[in-house]
């Protein structure tokens, strides 16, 4: 079931931060004002309105440790048209995201096994 809602400021801030980390200008990657939550928003994943049938890969991946000390993998993806597709969250124990990450809490270049 679809759960369409307005994008939150913290989500937009995170997307812009990830794009800037890649030296990409957020202006070149417009984000819809409305997003579709996956899994009712349990883990925080949202569809950004790209072509859901045209996944073209991950742009960037980061890790975040939720306040219950559980690792969360965050991935920004794109579609075959070069548009943003998803901001995907995967909490390794599949539980609900307890605190939304801020850019200063992201970890880059580390895998969950480390």
TrEMBL record:
One Pfam family, please name it: DUF6984
> What superkingdom does the record give?
Bacteria
Domain called DUF6984: residue spans = 4-101
* Protein name as it appears in the record: DUF6984 domain-containing protein
From what organism does this protein derive? Dyadobacter jiangsuensis
